[in-house]
Design goal:
The structure holds two protein chains of two kinds. By secondary structure, chain A is an alpha/beta fold. In chain A, 38% of the residues lie in helices and 14% in strands. The chains are: A alpha/beta, B alpha+beta.
Chain lengths: 385, 122
């Protein structure tokens, strides 16, 4: 075997960049004071915290005090939706999201429904785009927040935040977006894109797990969900994860356009190579409307978990939208939303890149992938090739 | 999903995957809408399953369980083969995640259908 491992599941999590780890280490053993303490030693932690906040704020064109640190994307999405919903429950009870948002947004919305809120789940087109006219029509005088995922984790579609955000502004409705997958991978500017709240996280961008952030535009009030010692302006209690936050900021500092260009090159090579296989399809759009690191394919007659299992036997890490890979035995809600049949959704495999992947790795994947598709079709009960 | 080593062995190198060209009967189970389809092909001589193959549109568990079932059924009389159960498969491949029981019993149903079809035509 030429490679110890070909890791193509970066949409799930990434390796911590060794340079990030290096910056984090002193905060475990040397600069470990609680940032809330009053002594001089704590000043180092406080400085690190605020410096990190500044870096992250700047990266999305926000003000430093508009950033709240959380334990990750899931917590930030929960805080945004529940915090805004309860803060504004006297103004209205209507929330809008999409059928392709992440489960932590959808499950938060479901819970809010159980608490008396009403939720509209917008449809998307066959590439995954939210139609701005649909959004405009869905907003009522009871709508308090719109939450739309920026870069989709499964099919890589990047939504036009600027247009969607403008509609929300015009209607006087708050606009939240989950940017966990798109952060550092495509342009983000909360001012230009008319965003009021934005979820960010660290472990998808070669930072450590367990850290995320929520951007909350100046002046927007939010009901806290975690109560305690008044950390993060009283919006998110709990001793700040300084080493994690420092690592998160370092990961943001390192990320650059060259990495994006590298991933685009590998992505398109992988897509073009895989589409040469008969009976294959790309799920989601092509070109610059697609996340630079996302490839999602379906192969007729092939079940996704089984294909992933064969790739795994060659140390290639992938993921699938197949029903068989989930606890619910339901195929991916995102693939269903863009119109795939159960058969097509069950046959999907997702390969997500990072800047650490190489062209040789992609060549290797393109060598073994057709063999496994052929092998599975060789005893497929539904393939008539 | 967590699978045992034995499951992976059957999944990676299934001995009975594919079509049996001169099969005496075929049995089917499942449908594409629910995501799983299973076909069992049997060749019968003197009431004994002489050869057997499966085809599936199924996951790792479905492939491993069907391959195991074929191994167990080969050489058995039709009466013995139709009595094979999920417990017999598990004895061979150690364990399967609870949620995968559905996928692994498809083969048993397909085999019983194949035996039923064989009796109908013989």
């Amino acid at each position: 075997m030429r490679f110890k491992r070909v890791y193509l599941d970066n949409g799930a999590s990434t390796n911590v960049d060794p340079k990030v780890l290096e910056v984090m280490l002193p905060y475990f053993t040397e600069k470990y004071a609680n940032a809330s303490s009053g002594h001089t030693f704590a000043q180092e932690s406080k400085n690190a915290l605020e410096n990190s906040r500044k870096i992250i704020a700047k990266s999305i064109n926000a003000k430093t005090d508009e950033i709240i640190f959380t334990s990750g994307g899931t917590e930030a999405n929960n805080l945004a939706l529940k915090g805004i919903a309860f803060q504004n429950k006297d103004k209205g009870n209507h929330i809008i999201t999409t059928k392709i948002d992440h489960s932590c947004v959808l499950e938060s919305c479901k819970w809010l429904e159980s608490q008396g809120f009403k939720v509209t789940y917008l449809d998307v087109d066959e590439e995954g785009f939210v139609n701005p006219t649909d959004l405009k029509k869905a907003i009522t005088d009871k709508t308090i927040i719109v939450s739309i995922i920026h870069g989709n984790n499964e099919i890589g579609i990047i939504q036009d935040l600027e247009t969607l955000g403008k509609i929300c502004r015009e209607k006087g409705v708050l606009f939240h977006t989950d940017a966990c997958q798109s952060y550092t991978k495509t342009e983000i500017d909360v001012k230009k894109q008319n965003v009021d709240l934005m979820t960010l996280n660290s472990h998808k961008i070669h930072g450590p797990k367990g850290v995320g952030a929520l951007y909350i535009k100046d002046g927007i009030k939010i009901t806290p969900w975690q109560h305690g010692g008044g950390h993060e302006k009283g919006l998110r209690a709990g001793t700040e994860n300084i080493h994690g936050i420092v690592g998160f900021a370092e990961a943001v500092k390192i990320a650059n356009k060259k990495h994006v260009e590298h991933m685009i090159e590998l992505r398109d090579k992988l897509i073009n190579g895989a589409l040469e296989i008969k009976g294959s399809r790309l799920n989601g759009p092509r070109g610059n409307k697609r996340l630079c690191n996302n490839v999602n394919l379906s192969f007729k007659g092939v079940e996704g978990e089984a294909l992933g299992g064969y790739l795994d036997s060659k140390n290639i890490c992938s993921s699938t939208g197949s029903a068989c890979s989930t606890r619910s035995l339901e195929p991916s809600h995102v693939l269903k939303a863009i119109g795939l049949s159960n058969e097509e959704a069950n046959g999907s495999v997702r390969l997500t890149l990072s800047r650490f992947n190489t062209e040789e790795e992609i060549d290797y994947v393109l060598k073994v992938l057709p063999k496994f598709v052929k092998k599975l079709r060789g005893f497929s009960a539904i393939w008539k090739g | 999903m967590e699978y045992s080593k034995r499951v992976f062995e059957h999944f990676q190198k299934p001995k009975f995957a594919g079509e049996l060209k001169d099969a005496d009967a075929v049995g089917e189970e499942g449908n594409i809408k629910c995501g799983d389809v299973m076909k069992m092909y049997i060749k019968v001589e003197n009431n004994v399953i002489k050869d057997i193959r499966f085809k599936t549109y199924g996951c790792i568990a479905a492939i491993a369980a069907s391959d195991t079932l074929c191994e167990l059924a080969k050489g058995k009389t039709l009466e013995e083969a139709e009595k094979l159960t999920y417990a017999d498969i598990i004895k061979e491949i150690e364990e399967l995640p609870a949620i995968k029981i559905h996928c692994s019993v498809l083969g048993i149903a397909a085999l019983r259908n194949a035996i039923k079809n064989y009796r109908k035509s013989n």
